[in-house]
Amino acid sequence: MLLFTTAAELRAYAEAERCAGRRLGLVPTMGALHEGHLQLVRAAAAACEVVIVSIFVNPTQFNNPEDLRLYPRLPEQDAAALAPAGCTALFMPAVAEMYPQPTVLHFDFGPLERVMEGAHRPGHFNGVATVVSKLFHLARPHAAYFGQKDFQQVAVVRQLVADLSFDLELISYPTIREADGLAMSSRNARLTPTARAVAPLLHRVLAQAALRVQGGVGPAEVQQHALAALAQEPQFTPEYFEVADAQTLQPIMGYEAGRAVVLCVAAHLSGVRLIDNVVVD
Question: Is 179 within the bounds of a domain?
Fold first, then answer.
């Protein structure tokens, strides 16, 4: 597995591999890798001859400086896990390498980003779109792989690919969960043992809400019941629970045949912000 730390190195490598006729897969990450990340790497390796994984804790997508400071960073451990999963090149740039000067370009994804994560984390998706655009330009992948735990992020990146005509296939994979249902996340490492024992409640609430949606319970009632269930656990501070159209991500008043629904939740657990979602077809 090759290691690159500069944009010039990555660009030259990717260009040479493309010219040689090889298919390139890109897996963008912020490190502190878990099985969800490695699933994406293995999927890329199964379909591509070259698999580039980026590890970059992108400061422009954090609206909370403390969250940025505390984000787990495990470069040696991450590198050791990537090669067996099929990674052929690891890109680990410094902040100054990705942002040699402050960016002034601003992305606006309209209604798609004005709900849920976009509403509660101002500027977040502008930072995501900026760094993902940079990675797409540098690596020029044939396919890029993302996890569905960040459901809204996948929707935003899909819009980015369409609007800027990136010549690549965007592939998303289902959320990987722990045995007790907790969605795997790099932030889980920050949970205390007490908080970790409580954390699976987030998925249980989502699963119960999905059953209510399937039973025809109205969106407003589903939302109210879910928020009330989370509020009963004193360690949890719910931020939002939305019953939304899976394509537009806009809150819905009722259900339509043939339109999938996504249930999205964000909550703070002992100082750690967790998100999760479930799609109901």
Answer: no
Task: State the DSSP code for 21.
Answer: T
Last residue of a domain, one of 151, 173, 195: 173
Are residue 18 and residue 139 in the same domain, yes or no?
yes
Q: What is the DSSP string of 112-180?
A: GGSSHHHHHSTTHHHHHHHHHHHHHHHH--SEEEEEGGGHHHHHHHHHHHHHTT-SSEEEEEPPPB-TT
Catalytic residue among 34, 37, 142, 203: 37
Number of domains in the chain: 2
Q: Check whether residue 105 and residue 9 sit in a common domain.
A: yes
Q: How far is CA 228 from the centre of its chain?
A: 26
Tokens (6 digits) for 40: 């994406």
Over residues 106-143, the pLDDT tens digits come to 999 999 999 999 999 999 999 999 999 999 999 999 99
The answer, as to whether pTM is greater than 0.90, is yes
Host domain of residue 46: 2-173
Is 37 in the active site? yes
